[in-house]
Amino acid sequence: MLGHAQTVAAAFEDIERSGSGVDSQLKGRIRLTAPASFSCRYLPGLLEGFRKDYPDISVELLTSNEELNMSQRAAEIALRVTNSPPDHLIGRKLADIPWGFYASADYLERNGRPLHLADLGQHDLIGATGSLARRDGFAMIDREYRTGVVCRCDDLMTMAAFASQGLGLALLPADVASQSLQRVLVLGDVPANQVWLLTHPDLRKVERVRALMQFLTPAIRDAFELD
Fold first, then answer.
1. What residues are paired with 28 via a beta bridge?
2. Is residue 96 within a helix (H) or strand (E), and if so which, with residue range?
């Protein structure tokens, strides 16, 4: 998997080294696809900054957690959370997103703050259902703390909403946890999610695609360092 990721990233270097492209105009439309968590929390502010730098480029944001067919130009750029980027795309890993248990201030005031994983047995937990329940962290909850699960759902953003209302502790990646939640434990045993910025090789020399990718690369990295 590491070799594959290095190949995807190496191909992306051509975007940064290339000073001229097939389409050299810094104007027109770019379709960017991104998960809902990024679209709501990070991209509005970042795209506002991009708009100031490139007023003639219009960004169309397609909010989706599914992989769009970029070979057929459903989108020119994809911001994806994946540990195995598709072979047919090129790009760069921007960040690692850790998993942790999150809770609202109200819940913690009422129930106290867990200091160790063993403390989860004394807390209300928000569990997973469907395919999400098979992921390592949620399987651990069902295996060791099942009696503490007070509700379940199959969507991470919904879990974050449940936790915000004080229903219990939610296991979430950092990008999904709302800013109203407090992280109480980091779950190091669950591999971090990788954030990739991807495009189709045929678009590597389109100037407006290069511009947006070069703008988002440091901006997203900075956003996660500050979070």
1. 57
2. strand 90-97
Shared-domain flag, residues 88 and 151: no
- Number of folded domains that form the chain: 2
10 lies in the same domain as 93: yes
pLDDT tens, 51-108?
999 999 999 999 976 665 555 567 899 999 988 888 889 999 999 999 999 999 999 9
The string of pLDDT tens digits covering residues 7-58 is 555 555 554 444 444 567 899 999 999 998 899 889 999 999 999 999 999 9
| Distance in angstroms (rounded) separating the CA atoms of residues 146 and 51 | 48
Produce one character per residue of 37-65: b if its CB has 16 or more CB atoms within 10 Å, e if not.
bbbebbbeebbeebeeebeebebebeebe
Q: What is the pTM of this model?
A: 0.80
Tell me which residue has tokens 């997973």.
128
- Residue 47 Ramachandran class (φ > 0 left, ψ -120 to 50 alpha, else beta): alpha
